[in-house]
Amino acid sequence: MVRVPNVTRADAVAAVRNPLAFIAARWTPDPRTVQRAALIALVMSVVIVVTGGAVRLTGSGLGCPTWPKCTDDSLTATSAMGFHGAIEFGNRMLTYVLCAAVGWAIITARSEKPYRRSLTRLGWAQFWIVMSNAILGGIVVLVGLNPYTVAAHFLLSTALISVATAMWQRTREGDGAPRPLVGKSVQQLVWFLVAASVLLIAVGTVVTGSGPHAGDSSEVERMPLDWETVSKLHAVLAWIVVTLTFALWFVLKAVDAPRGPLDRTRDLFLVLLAQGVIGYVQYFTDLPEVLVGLHMLGSCLVWIAVLRVLLALRERPEPEIDLPDQAYAATSPSIAGPR
Predict the structure, then answer these.
(1) How many Cα atoms are found within 13 Å in the side-chain-facing hemisphere of 62?
(2) Given Cys at both, which of 55, 72, 89, 99 links 77, Cβ 3.0 to 4.6 Å?
(3) First CA to last CA across the chain, in angstroms?
(4) CA–CA distance, 60 with 91 (Å, rounded to integer)
C-alpha cells in the first residue's frame, strides 16, 4: 500500500486559501480526463437548455412562483404545488449539476501539466455565465415569464454552449499559435455562415416569444408580433444557413481542403437537415410539445456544429521547445540504439 502523507497545518491553510492550486500541486490528470470533463460540461449545458424547454412546454414556468425560494415559505417544492412545482424545482436543481460539471472541468484544466492558462480561463468563463444565467432565470420568474427575459435567458445559455464547445476543442489541441488550414475567402464564407446562424437562433427566440407556448397555464405576456410571419422569416434564415453550408462544402472540395473542415461541414449539413425536418413537421402539426422540445435540442446541436466548422479552419500544434545542445547529446545514444 502507498502511504498517504500527513496533511500539515500549512497544507490545510494553503488548501483553504487556494484549493485549486493545492489540488494541482498534488494531482496531474490524464489528458483524456481533461477532455472528458470538458465534454461533460458541454453536454450538461445542452441538457439544461432542453430541460428548461420542458419546463416551458409543460406550462411549469411559474411552478415555483418566486426566487431564490420556490415559495415565500419554502425553499423546495411542496406536494401542494403538484406536477408543475416538481418540474420547475427539478430544473433549478439541475443547475447545481451543471455547476458541478463546470467545476470539475475547471479543476482538471487547472491541474493539467503543463499548466494551460487559456484552458482554465475558458472553464471560469463558463462558471460566470452559469452564475449570470441563474440570476437571469430568477428575474424571468419574478417578472412573470416576460418573453424578452426568456429570450435573453436562452441566448445566454447559447453563449455558455459556445464557451463549452471552445474549451472541449482546446482540450484536444496544443497551445501553439493557430495555423489556418484554408484561405481567407473560405474563412470569410464561414463567418457569413456563423452570422446567419446567430440571426437564425435570435429569430428563433422571437418565434418562441410570440408563439403559443407561453410557459405557464396562466395569462403570460407575449411579444406583439404575428407568429406565422416570424416563423416564415425563421424558415428563410434556415434555408440561408443550409445554402451557405452546401456552398462551403463545395468550396472546400474545390480547394482540396483537409479532412477536418470537410467532415465538420458534412456533420453540420446532416444536423441542419434533421432540424429542418423537425421544424416543418412541428409547424404543420400545430406545434406538439415533444417536437418543439426536439427542435430546441436541434438548435443547440446546430450551433455546436457551426462552431466546430469554425474551429476546424485552423490547427493549434504543440509549441516547439528549443532544447539545449546538452539535451540532444544526452538523448542521442538512446535514440541511436546500441552500435
Answers:
(1) 14
(2) 89
(3) 41
(4) 10
Reported as a pLDDT band with limits 50, 70 and 90, residue 296 is: very high
Whole-angstrom Cα distance, residue 263 to residue 210?
36
Torsion of CA 224, 226, 229, 230, to 10 degrees: 30
Q: Judge contact between 293 and 266, C-beta under 8 A.
A: no
Distances 195 to 176, 244, 246, 304 between C-alpha atoms, Å: 27, 11, 16, 14
Residue 314 near residue 180, CB atoms below 8 Å: yes
Indicate if the pLDDT at residue 335 is higher than 50: no
CA-CA distance, 289 to 300, in Å (whole number)? 17
DSSP label at 3? P
Cα(199)–Cα(202) distance, integer angstroms: 5
| DSSP letter, residue 216 | B
User: All 3 cell numbers of residue 113?
Assistant: 501539466
Please tell me the distance from the alpha carbon of residue 228 to that of residue 236, in angstroms, as a whole number: 12
> Which amino acid, residue 133?
N
Nearest in space to 145 (alpha carbons), one of 46, 48, 64: 64
Q: What's the rounded Cα separation, in Å, for the pair 204 and 208? A: 6
pTM, whole model, 2 decimals?
A: 0.88
Rounded to an integer, what distance in angstroms lies between the CA atom of residue 240 and that of residue 230? 15
| Residue 275 identity | Q
Q: What is the 8-class DSSP label of residue 7?
A: P
